[in-house]
Amino acid sequence: MELIEDLIFNKNNFTITSLPKGEYENCQFNNCDFSNSILSEVKFLDCEFLGCNLSLAKIIKTAFRNVKFKDCKMLGLQFENCNEFGLSFHFDTCNLNHSSFFQKKIKNTTFKNSQLHEVDFTECDLSGVVLDTCDLAGSKFENTNLEKADFRTAFNYSINPEKNRIKKAKFSILGIVGLLDNYDIVIEP
């Protein structure tokens, strides 16, 4: 597999010509379009994606190791299919609607100012995850490890404490409603 290091890609359209398979280390992708492209078996190590569209990209056995995504559109990504070895990423101001992290171990991941509507976190290990000012409307948490996760500024989530591990997780007083909505009770100010 070819090693590509320290390159900057600007406004590349990988929907027409796919990104060549290889190991990309310390590369930066600026305003590139990867939508519906095939990124399967590509390795990204210490890379940054800034303002990119990765919606519906195929990421089967794709490796993301210490990868940062900022201002990216990432609709419908199936992270459950990517390479689990060394899986580590950070999301800032990204749209991850309709994506899936089913059964992934993504401890200590940071999601900041991101939209996570209808995201599947079923059976994930999200221990220590920070969800800073994230919209989790319709996201699914079932048999999920949320121990020591930080939901203090997250909103629109619904988490059943009986079906998830939430020991030492952090929630705000206003967000506590997201832990009680399964009980069909009325909470008034």
- Report the biggest beta sheet as strand number plus sense, adding barrel if it closes: 10 strands, parallel
> What integer is the average pLDDT?
95
Unreliable parts: none
Overall 3D form: elongated
Helix content: under 10%
**Strand proportion:** 15-25%
Question: What is the CATH superfamily label of the domain at 100-189?
Answer: E3 ubiquitin-protein ligase SopA
SS elements, strand count: 10
From the helix content, strand content and strand pairing, which structural class follows? Answer: mainly beta
How far the N terminus sits from the C terminus, by CA atoms, comes to 59 Å
At CATH level 2, the architecture of the domain at 100-189 is 3 Solenoid
Q: Taking Cα atoms only, what radius of gyration do you get, to the nearest Å?
A: 17 Å
| CATH structural class of the domain at 100-189 | Mainly Beta
Write structural notes for this entry.
With about 190 residues, the chain is mainly beta. The chain has a domain at about 100-189: E3 ubiquitin-protein ligase SopA (Pectate Lyase C-like, 3 Solenoid). It contains 1 helix and 10 strands, in the order ββββββββββα. The mean pLDDT is about 95.
Quick overview:
Helix content is 2%, strand content 20%.
Q: What topology does this entry show?
A:
Elements: E1 3-5, E2 8-10, E3 23-25, E4 28-30, E5 43-45, E6 48-50, E7 63-70, E8 88-92, E9 110-112, E10 130-132, H1 177-180
Parallel strand pairs: 1-3, 2-4, 3-5, 4-6, 5-7, 6-7, 7-8, 8-9, 9-10
List keywords for this structure.
189 residues; mainly beta; Pectate Lyase C-like; 10-stranded parallel β-sheet; 10 strands; 2% helix
